[in-house]
Amino acid sequence: MSSLWRLITLILVIALTIGLIVMIVLFAGSQKRVRHLKNEKFQLLSQVSSLTTGKSPDSARDEQSLYRRDFVSHEDGNRDSYILSPPLVHPSDGKYVLVVYLHGMGSNYLEPYFVPDKEPIAPRLREAFPGIVLASLSYGKDSSWTNPKAIADINQNISELTYAYPVDSIVMMGTSMGGCAAVYYSAVAPEPIRRRIRGVVSIEGAGDLAELFRSTGSTVVKFGIAGAMGGAPEAVPDIYRQSSFLSHLDELPQNTRFAIVSARQDTTVPPALQKELKERIENHGNPVSFVELDAGHEMPPPGVYVDGLRFVLQ
Questions:
Q1: Alpha carbon distance 181, 173 (integer Å)
Q2: How far is CA 88 from CA 65, 85, 134, 159, 302, in A?
Q3: What is the pLDDT of residues 125-134, one digit of tens each?
Q4: pTM (2 decimals)?
């Protein structure tokens, strides 16, 4: 019997030892993963260096340079940031084109620098147009849409950028939520900014937020719009009307050019909303390029943004 107990004890000791070894290995692996994630975060934050340093995050790869500009919102006093890429070459006439990018819902100002994954938007834009000043804004929260706080921060950021550079013309560019905000801002911007908005590149956007709320197949988008507007369209119709581009079409300068991109299989921002945008803007007398993609609601290849920018800068 004693031999049996010794055998059982030995088996238990071996099992406990193996278990302990496994735990140590798993713990070491998790610590390695944590260190890896921290390293990734450090590298990302190193790339997004402050403008106040006056240094490129990687002088050997200046074409990828981006700087974080911190500011305090005049609207609510909160601290926020945006990302700036200075021009690779300076225009001979000293007149700069400012391209303002507005991200989609749930994303942030880093969007054009890291999306799409294999070939991000910003590097392609800068390669095709090395003289542009490219700024990607936070404009409030990740689900701000076109509420007053978002518009106030856009005003503040653009005003600051036009002081830093002698901006001759501005192009608004955005995807999804950003596509809605880009067209909206072209009509409601303060007059000194609005008269310099040369064009808008709107990817999968809409001009009527109430109709988008009703027609979207995404519950997340419904909640996002309702949160930004303070309720559903039936509860606050005047806010939806005030926050929608089509309600301000008469305020749009007729020389503003539009590149509108639609996705045929889009159930989040249905393609009918982009077609309505196209028709209403054309009826107003503005030049419009309309491109339909055989895709769903997603970030299209960067060439789509390049082509859109090329059209509005004609």
A1: 9
A2: 9, 9, 10, 22, 18
A3: 999 999 999 9
A4: 0.81
